[in-house]
Design a protein that fits this description.
81 residues; alpha+beta; three-stranded antiparallel β-sheet; 32% strand
Length: 81
């Protein structure tokens, strides 16, 4: 069976780090991302997704935000420089 690797290079930010990049600040301003006491609500193409503050938020190839659980992010992504 053939194996495949994602070719996507994406921007991502851990939610607990409050030094937000410009793209994430813009999503807050647009109301597409909202913080609650212990979670973040993200408006994705599939609807509203709730995620923990230790999780990550990334931008897909269409510029849409999506949350990624911290354990999934660690297993799937590595820093590109």
């Amino acid at each position: 069976m053939a194996k495949y690797r994602k070719k996507l290079l994406t921007e991502a930010h851990q939610i607990s780090d409050e030094d937000y990049p410009t793209w994430l600040s813009l999503l807050f301003a647009q109301g597409r991302v909202k913080l609650a006491a212990d979670k973040m609500v993200v408006a994705t193409r599939e609807g509203l997704k709730t995620t923990g503050l230790d999780d990550w938020i990334a931008i897909d190839s269409n510029g849409d935000p999506y949350p990624i659980a911290a354990d999934v992010f660690a297993a799937t992504y590595e820093l590109a420089e």
